Amino acid sequence: MVTTLDEKLESAYQEVLRRNPGEIEFHQAVREVLETLGPVLAKYPEFAEHKIIQRVCEPERQIIFRVPWQDDQGRVQINRGFRVEFNSALGPYKGGLRFHPSVYLGIIKFLGFEQIFKNALTGLPIGGGKGGSDFDPKGKSDSEIMRFCQSFMTELYRHLGEYTDVPAGDIGVGGRELGYLFGQYKRITNRYESGVLTGKGLSWGGSRVRTEATGYGTIFFADEMLKARGDRLEGKTCVVSGSGNVAIYAIEKATALGAKVIACSDSNGVIVDHDGLDLALIKQIKEVERRRISVYAQEKPSATYLENGNIWTIPCQIALPCATQNELNGKDAEMLVKNGCIAVAEGANMPTTPEGVRIFQDAGLAYGPAKAANAGGVATSALEMQQNASRDSWSFEYTEQRLHQIMIDIHRDCHETAAEFGAPGNYVVGANITGFVKVARSMLAMGLI
Ligand code: NAP
Questions:
Q1: Which of 212, 263, 306, 402 could serve as 249's disulfide partner, Cβ 3.0–4.6 Å?
Q2: Is the pLDDT of residue 261 over 60?
Q3: Which residues are substrate-binding (predicted)?
């Protein structure tokens, strides 16, 4: 079932389809936002009059570049780099870099589009952007990763700056990659400009809690959704997809709040451990040894490994998709509902297909969309920028407290806005409208930009 759009929104959507052929993830992300904006245009006709929707769907700037590098055998390799600077009405472009073979312009544009509204929700002064490459870091040596990152930054640096565009990590880009990228930026510009990248190491301008922030924030958001229903996370059984940065710290915080996480995954399979996942072992396998999650089952007798398994078939009360886009479809959603799932909070970006979202909403689950539920990562990036600007370094406790309060505030804003616009409990409506209105008002105030 596809929700119909009102006339003005439908024509804006058709224009997006026509101007961006083949970019299906971007179309999906735009449609999801437009489906919720009908009541906004009715309340604020000036947004339609000034073509804010059409403007917001068109990136301010799109950069595509060649990334040549040499592998360990001395062979020349060529990848494609992207940076989409989508919207700077609220602050410098801000959003991560993704290195994954599936990356093309449509993926970067969907992520950049989502980022605009997510960043607005944090209440911090950051615009929206995203970038990356079709480079696959899997199986590459550290030297190859370094040469690739240096070549990538040799082109990208001219578009960056602490007041212009501030990248961070995403899939395939963690502390190691950010180190090489920052080193090359510093070398080319001859400036120690800490605020140009976030997710930096603690000894060179990084913020405490940034590594943990997206996963922790997703759990804080899930807990708020449950509290709004007179319930809480403590004692619940959870399933977390993925075993990367977001998944690991979602597992950590869920466990700390008294939930039991029984499964996680990677793109090859799923591990299930009904004793509750051993996080120290997962960190050792994924963060230190950079191996596959199947190793967990070899080390733990209580665990089973399901090669090519579907994690959403495992009964749980809370589902936390933390891997990638469209990893949870309509059938998976039906299965989760049937098995007694009561809440879904998205650590990954757009992990649930539109059909899956409708099934969750029709079944009355607490469904926290990515824009709201995973905003803790970028919020803490903005806190890193604050620390860099004041040449300060905050404690773990203080930074986590700031993150926690931001997630509480995002939940409250989404909850209140959803009720105001006649859709109580609908966090998709709440998140899209709260984020969009902030951006639209700022764009109007700045004239024709
Ligand atoms: P990451 O550290 O690279 O981890 C990604 C994880 O997802 C890996 O375990 C990966 O498994 C798994 N994965 C990827 N594609 C998969 C697929 N098709 N099926 C099953 N598993 C798959 O990346 P991350 O930073 O955790 O990002 C995960 C998600 O969170 C992404 O959607 C990202 O955009 C979103 N996000 C991240 C942040 C952040 O601060 N890092 C902030 C907001 C949102 P393999 O190793 O097998 O590929």
A1: 212
A2: yes
A3: 94, 115, 118, 169, 381
Q: Are 310 and 270 in contact (CB under 8 A)?
A: yes
Same domain membership, residue 168 and residue 97? yes
Ligand 1 atom closest to the CA of 375, numbered from 1: 43
CA-nearest residue for atom 21, ligand 1, is 267
Tell me how far CA of residue 176 lies from CA of 148, 366, 426, in angstroms.
Answer: 12, 36, 38
Residue 185 CA to residue 155 CA, distance in Å, equals 10
Whether residue 286 lies in the annotated active site: no
Burial of 386 (0-12, 13-18, 19+ CB in 10 A): middle
Domain match, 162 and 105 both: yes
For atom 27 of ligand 1, the residue with the nearest CA is 171
* Cα separation, 127 vs 117, whole angstroms: 9
Identify the pLDDT of residue 142.
Answer: 98
The C-alpha atoms of residue 351 and residue 360 are separated, in whole angstroms, by 13
**Contact between 118 and 370 (Cβ < 8 Å):** yes
Say yes or no: 181 and 229 in one domain: no
Q: For residue range 52-61, what is the model confidence (pLDDT) as tens digits?
A: 999 999 999 9
**Which alpha helices (DSSP H) does 277-316 contain, by range?**
279-283, 294-299
Q: How many domains does one find in the chain? A: 3
Which of ligand 1's atoms lies nearest the C-alpha of 264?
9
pLDDT for the residue numbered 2:
62
Q: Which of these is catalytic: 43, 51, 109, 130? A: 130
What is d(CA 175, CA 229) in angstroms, rounded to the nearest whole number? 38
Structural domain boundaries enclosing 221:
213-373
303-307 and 318-320 strand pairing: unpaired
**How far apart are the CA of 244 and the centre of ligand 1, in A?**
6
Distance from chain centroid for Cα 237: 23
Burial of 62 (0-12, 13-18, 19+ CB in 10 A): middle
Express each pLDDT in 112-123 by its tens digit: 999 999 999 999
- 419: in domain: no
